[in-house]
Amino acid sequence: MKEWFKISCLLCVFGFVREIRPSEPYVTEFILGPWRNITEQQLVQDVYPVGTYSNLVQLVFVFLITDFLRYKPLIITIGAAGVIIWSMLIWTTSLLSLQILEFFYGTYMAAEVAYYTYIYAKVDKKYYPRVTSHTRAAMFGGKLISGITSQLMINLELMDYKQLNYITLTTQIIAMLWAFGLPKVDKSLYFHREANAIESTPEARRTSQLQVETQVESVDSDMASQQTIRPAMRLLWQHFSNAYTNPRVVQWSLWYALGFAGYLQVSYYMQVLWKTIEPNPQIAWNGAVDAVLTALAAMTALAAGYLHNDRVRPRVSLLVLSLLSALEGGSILICCWTHDIYWSYVGFVIFGALYGFTITVASAEVARNLQEESFGLVFGINTLLALVFQSLLTVIVVSETGFELAPVGQYTVYAFYFIAVAIIYLISVLTEHLWNRRYEKDQLKTINLE
């Protein structure tokens, strides 16, 4: 087995096991059930927002230290945070304990950046597209198994909502232990670069002075630290400025952040909406819906990878995404404007399938306009921007300081949020098209005059 493939498989096992969380499709049912004395209003306004804000704040910190700590400690942290979260869900009952575990849920989600970027420091650049697809496929597979398992356990009455948490806790313990066995990262993209790789060719020596500086050896430890950190920060800035001075990267990164923020918000509170539509369902099909959504999202993501290629012009891609974004908004309206829980399920599945396609296209467009080494950096920044947008949505739509809308009102806002994104990007595409046509006409006139 080739070394890069072996490392990819080891990481994918972690991602797969971590995603087997059969309690998640029913977490709202569990928290609002007889095991805790928590109201729906407390859950929406005092508990879930803590996770959103915690994720945002901790992602800034995680983003800064992931490369410096060489990824693996943060992956172990993901597993440890999972163990803490589900232990507290099982063995605590107070509102305060829920808020504390939401803080750790922020850690759990923020540290996910390390899972996605670890592989870039361990394999050669030519394998980046393959290992990226592997890591995402592993997570899709885990979610699919999770949804099927939870639905079977509930339908066959083998477990109740609380007992599902024991399965999740077990998988998080396994994931944490597995993370300890992941290969160490000897070099990273910024703070621990490999000098030999840089010095291998005359061209590299001439163009990679910043990277060389990061590996200058010094007897004095303080000087060595400075010679590592300062050039690394310069290289970070160089990659950042190269990426975000490219109009195409900015355009697609903004779409990625807006789309991801909307998806997070829609999926985060969906169980609360279903509880509003059907307070006491005979059978809650949340697990089955999650399984179907995951399968369709995986298929549409693969379809996007095959259908979308370098021959498709960015303008055409933006037009397609504008249309699909509007359809995402329409599917959310189906979720919240119906009194039939099954139509709401259908709307959410359609939304998830469309999102799987659009986020893959956006990611591909960002990637093809980047230097390969800056994938992880730009991914992290775009994720951070998405969390900023999600936090703003939470403050404006959900919190007491904002409009404090009921679930149906919240989802109506989210629907028109996606429709507004579609309109904005449609206008930008049309404006760019008209500008280019005018420029081409002016050029033709100039040529004719000459």
UniProtKB/TrEMBL annotation:
Pfam families linked: Folate_carrier (PF01770)
Subcellular localization: Membrane
Topology term for the membrane: Multi-pass membrane protein
A cellular component term, taken from the record's GO annotations: plasma membrane
One GO MF term attached to the UniProt entry: folic acid binding
The entry's keywords: Folate-binding, Glycoprotein, Membrane, Transmembrane, Transmembrane helix, Transport
Transmembrane spans: 73-91, 103-121, 254-271, 283-306, 318-339, 345-364, 376-399, 411-431
SUPFAM superfamilies recorded: MFS general substrate transporter (SSF103473)
InterPro entries linked: Folate_carrier (IPR002666), MFS_trans_sf (IPR036259)
Family: Belongs to the reduced folate carrier (RFC) transporter (TC 2.A.48) family.
Full protein name: GH18741
